[in-house]
Input
Amino acid sequence: MDAARRRDRWRAQPGRGERVTMGLRDWLTRARRDDDLQDEIRAHLSMAVADRIRDGEDPDTARLAALKEFGNVTRTRERTRQWWAGAWRVWVLDLAHDVRYSLRLLRRSPGYTLVVLIVLALGIGANISVFRLFRPLALAPVPGVADSGRLGVLVAETTAGRVLPLSHLDFRDLVTAQTSFTDIAGTSMESLSMGFGANGERVWAEEVTGSYFSLLNVRAQLGRTLLPSDDRTPGGHPVVVISDGLWKRAFGADPNIIGRTVLVGGYPLTVVGVTEPAFHGTIVSIDIEAFIPVMMQPQLHGRDDLSVRFAPKLWGLGRLKPGLSMQTAAAEAAVLLERLAPLHPDEEITYHATVMPMWRSPFGAQTYLLPAVMLLGAMGVLVLLIVCANVSNLVLVRGLSRHGEIAARLALGASRTRVLRLLFMESLSLALPGAVAGLLASESLLRLMNTSGVAEVGPAGRVFFDTSIDGLVVTFAVLLSCGCAMVFGLLPAFRVSRVDLASVMRDELSPRTATSSRMRNVLVVAQVAVSMVLLVGAGLVLRSLDSARRADPGFEARGVASLMVNLQSSGYDESRGFAFYSRLLDTLRGEAGVESATLAAQTPMALVPGRTRDFEIEGHVPRPKEDLRFLINPIASDYFKTLRIPLLAGRDFADTDDEPSVKVAVVNATLARRFWNGVENALGKRLRVSRGEWVNVVGVVQDIKYLRIDEEPMPFVYFPYKQYGLAPMFAHVRGHEDGGASLTRLRARVQAMDANLPILDARPLREQTELGFFVLAMAAGVIAVLGAVAALLAALGTYGMVSYSARQSEHEIGIRMAVGADRADVVRRFLGRGLRLGLSGAVLGIFSALLISRALVSLLYGVSAADPVSFTAASGVVMAVVGLASFVPAWKASRTDPMAALRHR
Amino acid sequence: MPPLDLLQGTLDMLILQTLQWGPQHGYAIAQTIRARSSDALKVETGSLYPALHRLEKQGWVKAEWGVTDANQRAKYYRLTPAGKKQLLQERDRWMQLVAAIGGVLSPDAAKG
Output
């Protein structure tokens, strides 16, 4: 091409900006141009007619001849129009046309559309539900804060790999020394009483450093948030920012709340602000309702953690500098404390600092829920497989019945790509409604899954677990739906577009039809097999929950009423506090109908680890990386009697095990066996909390479940509460009953002793310990729903296949019945076809499940991954479902009127 | 003799050539080509109008509504300076092509 020509081309092609505006203009003037073209063609025709009339033809003939000569007006217009728009615009127009056409087709076969939408709604809905559980755990852990999934968590990690909060002093050192974060805020979760007396209640609070709110970019809807100026002098900032929820619940949304004084942990704090409604604190699943400067820690807890180098208190939340990874930040943090160590030569450092993403942070629900939810997500993928197989089948069947149409399109010159695209568009145009249906379905599915009570995860406090639908969920739904549409649309589209023209024209069944009927059978078998796997999984988890419920947790919660009192927050000092507890025990024990009463700082099966301490065991040289941090529980005498925990050796605590006497401890059997080679040996041995006094072991008790029912045995140490320091305590009372009247009486006794004392968490102990079943119950709820969805989908798939093959064989049925076959024969024939496929699917499913169920082991309790009961039950359900789904269409086929069927051809 | 099919790309050149003698509407362009080729070349309207609009988009012709002698409203196409240049080039190329094909087809060449 020579230069001049190139220049002309250049001129003919407008610049980029111009092209955009031109494109816009083109769209706007499209209608006008169309009219224009029509006028132009009309003028052409009338001139042609006029010429012919002039040449002597009569007007009618002339008009017909002119039209004939002109040819296809519409085609001319379409081809001309192409030149107004660029190639991509033509493509878009074609696409829009395809979509319109697809929608019209779908509207014309509402049955098909409905079935596909139901399948999508169920399958995609189930996955959306799991995603809605996953999102607040990993992707958006801090509600109301954008991008919270990218927050880094700065923590201490012991040499044994245990993650702990940093001490206040370490935290401050790290913040000044680090260079990976633009900013770090410190926070800690505390349970504090708010108000006093009968009106007092327990709220979850975060004690935070000055940059907490600015880092999270959370604003106050009323008053102000906490500022760096609230983070200067210990004890000098008696202020609190409350959540929107607390403001509405406890203060009736009082517009004059700012400046009011509330008792938090018994200490008067001034309300300075109310946060935005969307914000619920930074602890996943916990609804934090009060935010207090960490500088008030000594006042609120009656001991000073701010100036103690080894008191774990704060963890950091930080935004990484652009371009830095968590690993880089972790690498920097790892060496920082060591580098700082020479500054404090008298303090031994047994841990290093590290940085982790929020989803790995142990402070919140993510650590115990994420593994389960991830497994459930994998189960969800199986459901998606069924969805795709199911819809593929439907599309395939429909495609077959459209062989004629497609052959016609191909014969008229449509390219295969064009036909492929049309078929593909049909599937894709179901994807969007599918996503919407899935979102709607996930509302109900989530409710079904939640019978386990995700909403009641914390009897010990309020819960906020945000499973609402947001942009992320919608995006997920649409992507998932489109992804499915691609999978289920592509396969059949390829198959159908390879129509053998000649055979369709001859109205024959081509060999390809046979192939695709084999294909359909394979798809049905696959669906049955996958649903088998899911049902086995559901069976295993449900059986685990059942065996967990019947398992012996090592203690007896039934019959024990429980409530919590917090003395420090009502201004008790240690001696008055202990005196109060002693009197309380005496009163309760003197009560008629009370078998025994005790106090404990921790309740069993609490899900979240409570108090832990680093231990040294006399005579035991710790191996490298050995974890000697154990859970502890300060208790009163009669604890083991009240909870019916067997004492294996030695003695229970006595009321005389108090501060001035010899320090003693009771350990559990696991600890005794691990370090002293047996229960009896443990008596008289000594251990101590790091840096503390040596303590004599006076008793060994049987293990109980401390956190959750499916935990591994772990060492555990009990201390007499009077040798531990004043702490909020649960009173446990064993009597005739553990609810109603007994609780009321218990409350009344405490009230009579001090009317101003907040009474928290008054409930039967068995309700309190429900938490220990929580993860299993949640998993069981979700997986049961997934299994049900899978079975339903497999039923739909089988039903569709059998009823289609019955319809195809109408002619054959007619002949058979005409020559004497009765209805039972017909039913048997099609029922047999469905059952054969079902059986192959079930067998395939059993083998797959045997391989796959091992992945579930972490969720199982008291059930082997090859549990015959689960496998038998799942097989039974699958065969029943397949049988029913085959019988109905088979029975329908037997109602065929032979004469009508024969006349059809 | 049945009408000949137009070679790909030659229609544009013929239209531009026709317009060199003055602005014309679509019908007249078709008639002119047909008449000047002694009915050998028949322009399909299904190609003519797309071609006209293509040329307009490329800036080689300009369209305007006008009125014919018979008082019929019609869209007139006029050659632009760019169109003139384009025509010259296409004519050159066509001549070269004819000469080249002629050379191949000439009896002398066949003998040699």
The helical segments of chain B are 10-20, 26-36, 45-58, 81-105, 107-111.
